[in-house]
Structure prediction request, 376 residues.
Amino acid sequence: MPNLRVPGPTPLPPEVRAAQAQDMINHRGPEFAALLTEVTAGLKEFYQTAHDVLILTASGTGGLEAAIVNTLSPGDRVLAVSVGAFGNRFADIAAAYGAAVDKLEFAWGEPADPAVVAERLRSGGPYVAILLTHNETSTGITNDLEALCNVVRAAPGEPLLLVDAISSLGAIDLPTDRWGCDVVVTGSQKAWMIPPGLTMASVSPKAWQAHRRARMPRFYFDFSMAKRSLEKQQTPFTPAVSLLYALKAGLALLRAEGLAGAVARHRRIGERCRAGIKGLGLALFARESHASNTVTAVRVPPGVEGGALRKALRERHGVVVAGGQGPIADQVFRIGHLGYVSEADIDDVLGALAQTLVREGTAWRIAEGRQATPAR
Ligand SMILES: *Cc1c(COP(=O)(O)O)cnc(C)c1O
Prediction:
């Protein structure tokens, strides 16, 4: 089996694979009611929220779209803080639905600077909503979301805080209520150890208030419909039942480990990955003070072609890593280390990289690299 090390979809634990193979049930019947109630309660634990969490059938981008259309009206002034491809996507969705989007962009590989965001909120506001990315999967940056939330909460006009936490929630600490996040979106194929196809969104009381005024067009992703159905322990439309079986099994594994345990594991593995990469003489793309513990972007070394490197890893070692996105597509490759991942998985990637670089005749600092590569 290949070592699938892209930042989602992630490999599946055997318990999850078995769970999702179960036969169908009536999605308007008592077994489904119990299932939906259990997974919703489990998600709230990892969201650290006492408020609503809605599960929608869509990929993560559908959740981002839901966050926008359920809380905003055309013409609303929105500040989109972007540090990469997914921050740009969030801004594009708001613009597509007619929001008046101001974009505050930081260089790829850098985090959002809370002081610069605070200044923009003062000089450019008031805004109805701020769009933030917790973990930018295209660059391997984790923003200081707590500091960013603090400056947003102090801003004029009490803007809504809409957060893309698709590649962080469940792996990197995000206390939704304590930090005052109004809608936090995640996706099933990231830290949750289940296949793609579900997206989850928390909705704060303030987001519900905004929802009542919000006039952007919506139907399939309407939070009111989802909430009314949830009160009857159902979903408005036929849900992805198999994915909910999988989610129940994934949450059971995560609960056994505990949120603190899962966060610590991702921290350990993230650090091990970065240390190993540097040990090979390779350069990290993201500023290390804000390096992500779920994905590492590595600069393709000079004289090496990224596509060829990834092909060699895949064909000779069964190690599947991701390429870059957008303007850095050819400059980096990305190692996913979220969800169902252990130290051994990362050591396997580092070992395969070391061998590939030697074989490809790229000899720089490889001797040091061998020493610094963790023992296997
Ligand atoms: C994966 C990801 C998305 C997109 O999710 P899809 O499931 O591909 O729609 C959005 N934002 C971030 C930060 C992601 O990592």
